[in-house]
Amino acid sequence: MKLPFIIYLIPYLFHLVLVFLHMTRINKNKLYLDKPLRDLIFDNSLDLRNLKIFTNVLLVIFILPYFQGNGIKALSFFFRFFSIIVAIRIVSSTITDIPSSDPNCSINQEATWSSYITGHCFDKIFSGHTAISLSLILVAKKFNLISNNNAILLSLIQILYVYFFLICTRGHYSVDVFLSYVIVIPLFSCLQNEI
Fold first, then answer.
1. What is the extent of the structural domain holding 99?
2. pTM of this prediction?
3. What's the structural domain count of the chain?
4. Which of 11, 47, 55, 86 has minimal CB crowding within 10 Å?
5. Tell me: the pLDDT tens digits for 181-190?
């Protein structure tokens, strides 16, 4: 059953409210003082925190295929599909507080406009950056915006991007990245013809 488009706005609106409440709870409980969790991949990788800006800039690569053919229709589908991902992330981030993966985030965290869009130091459990880039590839492939060869190339770039930038820049724990794949791929497979 296809739902009205307006229904898919609800998770995005809840996201705005719950990020504010989450940041308030973190500040109140002084969770920003907690040390990062131990992580085998994270602890044994390069520390490239000074390149963190690229985690958001590189997402542009995955949006480029949408500037052709069925791009608007594909973006509409992406918006609806990703609202479900946002809903799952809201639940996971709200019910469990995990220390920041970046030791530099051990300062008093304020909710800013960028924390609502690109995330904040405490929105863990599974990576939104990974979920967005992977979803963009899957939706572009579904709407024939990319060929099989380009889908493979974009997927390889996405994997390198995720591991190199998200883990090495201390943006996420490795389990956050792993869970994004485990959640997004099966969810997309189940819902691609239902949304």
1. 5-191
2. 0.83
3. 1
4. 47
5. 999 999 999 9
